[in-house]
Amino acid sequence: MEAETATSGDETTDVVVVGAGLAGLAATLHLLGAGRGVTLLERDSSPGGRVSDRLVNGYRIDMGASVFTMPELLDEAFAAVGSSMSEWLTLMPLHPAYLAHFSDGSTIAVHTDPEAMESEIRAVAGPADAEGYRRLRSWLSELYAVQRDRFIGANFDSVLDLATPALARLAALGGFGRLGAKVARFVADERLRRLFTFQSLYAGLEPMRALAAYGVIAYMDTVAGVHYPKGGMGAVARAMTAAASAAGATVRLGTSAERLERDSGGRVRAVRTSTGERIRCGAVVLATELTTAYALLGRAPRRPVRLRYSPSAVVLYGHAPANGADSADGTALTLGHHTLSFGGAWRDTFAEIVRKGSLMSDPSLLVTRPTATDPTLAPQGQEVITVLAPAPNLHISEVDWPRITSAYRDELLRTLDARGFHGLAGNLVVESVATPRTWESEGLGAGTPFSLAHTLAQTGPFRPANRVRGADNVVLAGCGTTPGVGIPPVLVSGKLAAERLLRRHGACAVED
Predict the structure, then answer these.
(1) Residue ranges of the alpha helices (H) in 102-173?
(2) Burial (0-12, 13-18, 19+ Cβ within 10 Å), 22
(3) How far apart are the C-alpha atoms of 483 and 120, rounded to whole Å?
(4) Does the model's pTM come out above 0.85?
């Protein structure tokens, strides 16, 4: 296709970044730091994508991710433009990172401080598991160190890129075994095994089937530490957007990319927007859902089997009076910032949502109360509370969500009440409920906010690549490409996309 003739109304920039989620924002900051001009397009009226919040009747409610880890990766993005995270954003460490309640009535606080966590484990599980925790912590730390630069933070051009000493070291650490079995070698208590493996669900994998290499997610949660941004999770994207604007980026909110103009060689020469602009450019970063990126490109990757997506989730977004989860006699369980409520079933739960495509019969739930850390998110005397229940994605399930959503919402609240969170069912005002159909309506593949599962066939060089064959001035970024799902990998993804463009001589130059 021949590029259209430039007109006097055209705009010109070095790089157009499509999507102001954290991947697109990270790519923008790294490109700006390398001296490139950037125009950032975002279809929504605010930045953030999967890491956003919304102001509802005076309550600022996180609509996507609620767990923030590895802030040094965020600071790296700000440093690219000669700034620092602390100039734009306040992060507050969570102590404890989680409170975990179990079906036997016990509670374990998850601390990132090693002495505090060892003491907690010694009190609830005994000295053997306390010592095992120390060895587990050391293994998780080494696992992360081995993967950080060569696997998480690297661009792959072929499977041969794996052939490094780091791969041998990862194998020696047991990274290609199963996560559940590996953690069980360190701690005997079933509750502890859950606390150090449940994170694999974020990557779309059952703990007993996930590669042990995905213990790096538990490292991020339980060793590196969990934080919360003052002002809500959306404050991260707002801060990155402000820093990008201050560094010279042109930011267009409420503006989507409608079409890519390409020349006969396949290179993109301009981006047509939903607001009628034509932006001439030297390169493009598509930091969108994979299906959106492929639609713009007019192609999809050639793969022998269909892409496999992670489980989805049902999320109740609401608020309650302070102490609204308490019972009159004071017997209610405590809600922390992040509270895990584990059902008695464990393996069956994952089989239901990952393989059978059914709802959890004995659900494990994540209840988040961010006002425990930042009371300014709600009016005085009120709390913001969300409840997340893992659910099957739309590729494997035929659940009639429009029909059952209200009943399932009530069932989840009754479940929490029966487990000791007395009063929550009666006091929580549910402003909205997100189901797999909600995520689908927002353009997310298979109706899941957790993107592609991290199966072996969708990991490292086997994951959909961030490069685009036949269009060497286009790269992808986001959770669907390398390195994967979660805030830390997505920030890395934006950096990798920028690096790939910058390594290509002239890839960011506008040609007449």
Answers:
(1) 114-125, 127-147, 165-172
(2) buried
(3) 34
(4) yes
